[in-house]
Amino acid sequence: MVILDGKATADTIKGEIALQVEEVIRKGGKRPHLAAILVGDDGASQTYVGHKERACKQVGFDSTLIRLPDETSQERLLAEISKINGNSEIDGLIVQLPLPKHIDEQKVIEAIDPKKDVDGFHPVNVGKMLLGLPTFVSATPAGIIELLSRYNIKTSGKNCVIIGRSNIVGRPMANLLSQKSNPGDCTVTICHSRTRDIKEHTLNADIIIAALGIPEFLTGDMVKEGAVVIDVGITRVEADTKSGFKLVGDVKFDEVAPKCSYITPVPGGVGPMTIISLLKNTLIASGN
User: Among 96, 179, 231, 280, which one carries the catalytic annotation?
Assistant: First the structure.
């Protein structure tokens, strides 16, 4: 069993990106600039945005963080997005999700200039991805593809089960792994809350991607010997630790890991690779 070390892989890629940025600056080019908008004080969102800021600094990007209070109106948020859309100094823009309930997330996503949508959520970029055209791919699926590639995991002809059908992970992941590419060429099944007997599907899977947000949903009896398991979930649960909680994935790691050929840990698996995808998209958005 091999642990797919997202943190170590991300550190390697950060070094590669930093060298690219140095070369751009040496030639008189513009330093890539990523902006993030954070609405409210959700703890997990603040932590994630903090990771993005640090990653930008590590690779030599400029970064801007706009913090707005929880009661911010949709109109105010859309105005901030419009301002960044028109700012030629900023290459990439992310609006941290989830947003407060009074704000329409889809309207916010569609307000972002597709050329700055480094999260890959805008319908224009989603459509291009579905057609296999060059575009910004959703950061988490892109990070998973990168991780599979870096570990030379064979996907062609494999049966892949994705648990979860979100627009952020499940659906784009299914599209990417079914495309004529490497990694890709999988036979993909999407399971969700209405799927009957998910275990029947997962036991036939060579690759399982768990992205449903239910702690330790995937157990040892649901996985066949030699499977590749990618755990996208990350949930805070109460624990007897200094912080009072621990981070748990969608996979019951201690049961599942011994049966796997490859598996991602939580934390330190998919999360760091998601941030790497944002950096790579921002570098592309900058024209470099």
Answer: 96
